[in-house]
Amino acid sequence: MIPLETSLLAGLGRLDARAETFTGVQVDSRRIAPGDLFVSVGRGVEFAAEALERGAAGTLVPDDPFAALGHIGGEVRRRSGARIVGITGSMGKTSTKDILAALCMPAARTVAAEASYNNEIGVPLTLCRLERDTEVCILELAMRGFGQIAALCEIARPEIGVITNVGPVHLELVESLDGVRRAKGELIAALPPGGTAIVPADFPVERDDIDVVRLGEPDGRTSDGRTELGGVSFNFTARHQAKNALAALAALDALGLPRPASVEVDFSRWRGEEEELPGGGLLINDAYNANPVSMRAALAYLVERAGERRRVAILGDMAELGRTAAAYHREIGEAAAELRLDEVLAVGDLARGYLEGGVTGRWVPNVHEAVRRLDEVVRPGDAVLVKASRAVGLEAVAAALTQLTAA
Predict the structure, then answer these.
(1) Mean pLDDT, to the nearest integer, of 275-291?
(2) Helix, strand, or coil here: 83?
C-alpha cells in the first residue's frame, strides 16, 4: 500500500499508534503483516491485542467503521495514479472482474478486488492494496439499495464504469427493474467527463460528456474446453461467461491495453466450478449466489454440459426478490421443466415454488436435509448443478458430493 501517516486517523476513533506511518490495512487480525493498520469492525476490538502482537503499526477502534475505512481508502486513492475500473451488475460482476484482471495483468501492474470485496468494507480494503506503481485497479461495486454505489464511487472515483446487466435482484429495497437501473446508473453518473461507460445495449445513458460502449451478444467459438472471443482464447465454455468476457474486453480496450492471445482466468470460488463425480458424472458448483437471470443461465449451461447424462439440479432460495419472490421461483421451475431436467431438489421455503412450476422433484427445508437426501437424488454418472443465494449455504451440498468422489 502507498504509505499513509497515522496522523491522518485523528478523530476517527480510538487510535493506538505504534508507528508514524502504516503500509497496509486489515480488518482480520489473522492477516496482519508488520506495518499494517488493524481497523476493528464489529467484534474486531477483541482481537486488537493480537494484531499488535503480529506487528501492526497501530490499531483503530473507529466511531463509524464504514466512514473510517472510506476515509483511509479515499486517501490512498487520492495519492494513486492508477486508473480505476468500477464494475457492477445484477449478475456476473465478480466473474467480469476476474476476467478483466486476467486480461490486464500481462500488460499492466494490476490490483483487483478479492473474491466479492464489493461493499463499504471491501472497496476501501481493495484501494488500500494500491502501490505507487499500480497502473490499474479493478473494483466490484455492490448494490443493496439506492445510494450505495454512489457512496462507493465517492471513495473510488472510477474513470471507467461497467454495468454487466440489469435483472430482478434486491427488489426488496428498490422495488422494480427500473429501480435496479437507477441504482446501477449511479456508477455512470459518478464517472468524470471523458470517462467511459460500458453498458447493456438498452441501458439508458443521458450524459453526452462520456464515451458510451454498448454491449451486444458475444460472437465466440467454443472448442476443446475453451472459448475464442475477440481474438482471445479463454479457459471456459459457458455462454454467460462469454458475455462477461465481452464486457471485460471492452474495459480492456478503454484502458488502452493490448489483447493477449490467450488467458487463464482464475474465477472466484463457487461460481460455476466444475468437478468430476463418480461414474463419469459432473458437478457444476454455482452456489455463491442466484437470481432469476443467473438461474436461467445456469440451468441452460447444465443442459449443455450434461450431454447424455441425467440432469439434476439442486436449487435453493433466490433471496431479496420481495413480493415477487413466489412468482419468480415458479417461473424458474417452469424453465427447468421446459429444459426437461430429470430431477430437482428444492431447498428452502421459497424453493417450494420451483416444484409448483411443474418440474419433477422433491423439497427439503434446509441444507442439512438436502445432504441427507443426496443418495436418493443423485446417481453415478449424473450431471449436477448446485445453485442458490448465498444465505442458503449450498456449498455444503457441493462439498458432500465431492466427498463421494474422494471415497
Answers:
(1) 92
(2) strand
